[in-house]
Write a structure and sequence with these properties.
10 helices; about 300 residues; 2 domains; globular; Nucleotidyltransferase, domain 5; alpha/beta; five-stranded mixed sheet; about 35% helix; binds zinc ion
Length: about 300
């Protein structure tokens, strides 16, 4: 295999997915490592990249798609750090600096959801779009994407999982589990929230369980907020909870109901099957997005 190769890390709270290659059709090595301490996990990650370099040549750049919160301000003294995470031992971890000093190559860094959005833009469900949202619903809920061709950053980075949605306590007495907000979207609709409410994991709830209607309602309320706020050309929605494939049609139905024909775009009026879609890259969106981040640091042809 010829051509530049890139290192990619999808840094998650439970695992690090690492890959070497240049895209979905050119994966030269990959490994999944458990997230333990920063020192041990980064040591294993570096060892994986070093071994890949021995067999396939040097990495041109590295991309990191990270859990957060993270510091994305280039002029900040803690740029490239995982900052205030509640994940034990990981607060104030200089993940970019560790890789840059080890390999001496550019390191692209962004949220796991922005990276996944970039992967879907480059190879998946969001090609040719300049404004779209990628939302993941799993252990947590997060969102990112592109606005006018640029990755969403702003003040810090979007925290779409922590938006507030109407919570009718007469219909749903569950208080929510977000340690910061209680019944924000993540507190009500993440996988752990479903488990806490129904006392069994989401993937064990049968399709006819009323919990899915409620889940679809909360996610639809959030999507309507996203549609009305950002005017995305498409919404890509993935994550472990979304792997229950009856959920997406329920969400589309409720979005249709909640929008009530207000936004006069064909995509929203009668095209929701193609407007709210699963990621084409599936569970690989994050790590492939990290490849795209790495490529972006080495070229100027991708959105910044
Ligand atoms: Zn919250």
């Amino acid at each position: 295999m010829t051509g530049a190769q890139y290192g990619a890390i999808e840094a998650g709270g439970t695992k690090f997915a690492c890959m070497v290659g240049s895209g979905p059709g050119d994966v030269r090595a990959h490994v999944t490592l458990p997230t333990t301490t920063p020192e041990a996990t980064l040591r294993q990650t570096i060892a994986f990249f070093r071994e890949a370099e021995r067999t396939a040549g040097p990495l041109a750049a590295i991309g990191v798609a990270s859990f957060g919160p993270i510091d994305l301000q280039p002029d900040s003294p803690t740029f490239g750090f995982i900052t205030s995470t509640p994940k034990a031992g990981w607060a104030n971890t200089d993940i970019v600096g560790a890789l840059r000093s080890e390999f001496g190559v550019p390191v692209g860094f962004d949220t796991d959801v922005n990276a996944a959005a970039l992967g879907e833009w480059q190879w998946g469900a969001a090609r040719d779009l300049d404004t779209f949202v990628y939302l993941t619903v799993g252990t947590g809920i997060g969102g990112g994407g592109l606005i006018n061709g640029r990755l969403m950053h702003g003040l810090v980075h979007p925290e779409m999982g922590h938006v507030r949605v109407p919570h009718d306590l007469t219909q749903d007495a569950f208080a929510g589990i977000c340690p910061f907000h209680g019944d924000c979207l993540e507190g009500l609709a993440s996988g752990p929230a479903m488990q806490a409410r129904w006392l069994q994991p989401a993937d064990q709830l049968p399709a006819e369980h009323p919990g899915w209607i409620l889940e679809a309602r909360y996610l639809a309320l959030a999507l309507v907020n996203v549609i009305c706020t950002l005017s995305p050309q498409r919404i890509v929605i993935g994550g472990g909870v979304m792997s229950n494939d009856w959920l997406l049609p329920l969400i589309r139905h409720q979005v249709q109901d909640l929008m009530n024909n207000y936004v006069r775009a064909a995509e929203v009026l009668h095209g929701l099957d193609a407007y709210i879609v699963p990621p084409w890259l599936g569970g690989k969106a994050g790590v492939l997005g990290a490849i795209a981040l790495a490529q972006r640091t080495a070229t100027t042809s991708s959105p910044s």
